[in-house]
Amino acid sequence: MTTAIVDFTTYDKSVPEALARVGANPVLAGRDRILIKPNLVTDTPFPVTTSPICCEAIIDVVRACNPDAEIIIAEGTGDPSCDTMAVFETLGYTRLAARKQIRLADLNTETLKKMKNPACRRLPEFWMPEIALSCFIISVPVLKVHTLAKVTGTLKNMMGFAPPSHYSGGGTWNKAALHSRLQEAISDLNRYRQPDLSLVDASVGMADSHLGGRQCDPPVGKLIAGLDPVAVDRAAAGLLGLDWQDIGHLKKPLS
């Protein structure tokens, strides 16, 4: 099974169930360096951003499968008023990292590699943090309506890898240069590097906006896991009552 939707009870019960149902455990067992990418666009706590409790449950699954793997939690916040390391501290990730003995990485300041793909019309070249190319990536967004992208899922979550040194132009946000023709930008970015494994926290859900507003009522009460990020995001859109065929970056498989 490439995608699973499970009922949410607690992270320590539902996260292992979701990952096991998509066959993630043997995949994780064979990886030496694993990067967990939460959605920490700003310093507002869950459900606007990914809960550290969710990431802790993923760490426990990884450690059970592969005790010797290096685990990194990495993000590049989109809010220019928030330093990524300060966001880690505010939201409890610094304490989590100390407790679990893992490293935190700021994707906004990591060493970059220039990549080119002429098939990408929106982003024929992209400056990618080198850490993305040397790690197995687990994308862990929270389920949210997005005012520009229509849905925040695992593909949209990869925008955290866009460095502000190259992509802050054209607006006030750290990734503002990508907001023009955003659907194409999301698709192209993920053609350079897509997540290897995804876990969408749909335990609550944001019904109006990715930055605040109304929470889903009743809470969605699900987790979505999968190895195919497009399939995961199509399922996520459905949980918000959206038709994935109306969302540009979900219309076609990544190639």
TrEMBL record:
Which part of the chain is the DUF362 domain? Answer: 34-237
Q: Which domain of life is it from?
A: Bacteria
Write down what this protein is called: Uncharacterized protein (DUF362 family)
Q: Which InterPro entries match?
A: DUF362 (IPR007160)
